[in-house]
Structure formats: C-alpha cells, structure tokens
Amino acid sequence: MIKIELPKPDLVIRQREQVLKPGDVEITPFHGFIDFHKITREKGGIFFFYNEKNELLFVGKARKIRQRIKKHFEDNVSPMKKYRDEIFKIEVYEIEDPMEREIYETYAINTLRAKYNIDKVFFE
Which of 2, 9, 28, 78 is the most exposed place for a label (fewest CB within 10 A)? Predict the structure, then answer.
C-alpha cells in the first residue's frame, strides 16, 4: 500500500472585512478576499476551496497558482462558476514537481471527498 501524506498549506486566506487604521491603504477585495495578493504568482502547486462550515468544495492544481485560482472566480467554464459564493477559505500548497501535484490532487479529491470535483473521482 502506498502511503501519501499531504503537506501543511503554505498559505491560508479567508474572506474577511478589512479593518483600516489611520494611514492604511485600502485593498480592493477580490471576491471578498483581501489577502489574495499573498498567493504566489510564479510557483506551481495545489489549492483547496472550503466553505464557511470548513467543508472541502474543490481541489485544483496549477503551474501558476494565483492565475488558476483567479480563473475559477472569473471564467465561465470553471466547474466552480455556480458555487463561487460558497468559497470562504483557500488553502495554497506550493508544489513545483508536476507529478507530485497530480498525485496530491487526485489523492485529496478522493480521500477528502471534494464536493464539486468531477474529474479524477473514484468514490460514489
């Protein structure tokens, strides 16, 4: 049996209100996320979308994580297009090796039973 252990997330961002102090610059929220700019532009990895109840909604992978996550919020062909309003938390895992990304994504979809993933699903 193969034992796979998911790493700890490199970044977790949540939807939240922005609290400004005098002299602070207001950050324009991206679909309710004000920390979106913290997601790496250059690195590959996997990402998890969760709702407010901490239920796993979707697992994805990308060569450039921020760009792919952004597409899920803006694209008309995203499997998440009907469920964007449910996303409350995003976990980002920086994983450069494409084979490792593939393995972790498939493993996470099936062991954690991501609600809206339709590809790579081996459970019913």
Answer: 2
By CB neighbour count within 10 A (0-12 exposed, 13-18 middle, 19+ buried), where does 118 fall? exposed
CB 66 within 8 A of CB 41: yes
pLDDT tens digit sequence for 78-92: 889 899 999 999 999
Q: Which pTM does this prediction carry? A: 0.90
Question: What CA–CA distance (Å, rounded) separates 29 from 103?
Answer: 32
The end-to-end CA distance of the chain, in Å, is: 22
Residue 74 CA: distances (Å) to CA of 69, 84, 85: 9, 9, 12
What are the backbone dihedrals phi and psi of residue 4, each rounded to the nearest 5 degrees, phi first?
A: -115, 135
Q: For residue 96, how far is the Cα from the chain centroid? A: 16
Higher pLDDT, 40 or 23: 40
